Amino acid sequence: MKRFMVQSLSTLGMAIPPVSCACTIAGSDPSGGAGIQSDIRTFSALGVLGLSVITAVTSQTPKNVRGIWNVPEDAIRSQLMVLLEDFDVMAFKTGMLPDRGAVAAVVWSVPKDIPLVVDPVMVSSSGRPLMDPEALSELIEKLVPRAMLVTPNLPEAEVLSGSGPIRTVDEMRAAGRNIMMKGPSYVLVKGGHLPKGNGVVPDVLIGHEGEWVFSGECMPYETHGSGCCLSAAICGHLALGKDVPSACAAAKEFVGNAINGAFTTNSGYHMVNPGYGGGIT
């Protein structure tokens, strides 16, 4: 009977290279298509160590959300503090913050000198509200001003900016500028909900030093988890040292590949596959 011995790099006298850490603060999606599970897979595909803080447990698939159980504020704070004690977190991202306590925990626990990507998740892809009104007010007043980057889709940008319907790239720019006035360093307005016309999906990044448009292929199907995957990829690239415009450009390419390689559920719904995201660019 043959025996195999596995030796670590340290026992062989070789240095183990350091790994950048990124942390997602979001809800659990048991289908793996969005939320914590998708974020961790995205970080892993980028070669980043993924840490996680769970804000809610959900019972869902891409088809529907059957139940939501919020994690108490003190439990969210405790998760954050124990990670900060033992890891050098290079970037944070938020996803589902279902109630005021969840938002407050992030505001008071995430260090101000670490890049923070705020994905203002308000409604599930199946249409269920994921944030109560008090949480939304707290997010707009306290968390958005703290963010390095906010990544709303069009319905979220309409809420955050207070503007009317957004149907054009120029209206995306205007909404992004309005959100910038609330304090974040950058705003990325995602164009996935624009009327489908020329087969291209534009995302518009607004910053104090300029504006950028990142275009991707329009797929013939809706994909569960694309917003989570995009914000996680941006967070991962920030953890690797990229600036915000470069991180957004790389993440746009990554999520395009993840959508092209989407999984299909038994019900016929599609969800992103970060394993096809293309890795580090």
SSE layout and pairings?
Elements (H helix, E strand, L loop, with lengths): L20 E8 L6 H11 L3 E12 L4 E6 L2 H14 L2 E6 L5 H10 L6 E3 L14 H11 L5 E2 L3 H8 L7 H12 L5 E5 L9 E8 L2 E8 L5 E2 L1 H14 L4 H17 L2 E2 L5 E2 L10
Helix pairs in contact: 1-7, 2-3, 3-4, 5-6, 7-8
The geometry reads as globular
Overall mean confidence score, pLDDT? 89
The level 1 CATH classification is Alpha Beta
What amount of the residues lies in strands? 15-25%
Order of helices and strands: EHEEHEHEHEHHEEEEHHEE
How many strands, what sense, and barrel or not for the largest sheet?
9 strands, mixed
Helical stretch tally: 8
Cα distance spanning the termini: 44 Å
Structural class: alpha/beta
**What do we call the CATH topology?**
UDP-N-acetylmuramoyl-L-alanine:D-glutamate ligase
Kindly state the percentage of residues in helix.
25-40%
How big is the Rg?
A: 19 Å
Low-confidence stretches: 1-6
- Can you identify the CATH superfamily? Ribokinase
Spatial arrangement of strands, main beta sheet: 3-2-1-4-5-6-7-8-9
Domain tally = 1
According to DSSP, the number of beta strands is 12
**CATH architectural label:** 3-Layer(aba) Sandwich
Tags for this model:
single chain; 281 residues; alpha/beta; UDP-N-acetylmuramoyl-L-alanine:D-glutamate ligase; nine-stranded mixed beta sheet; 23% strand; globular
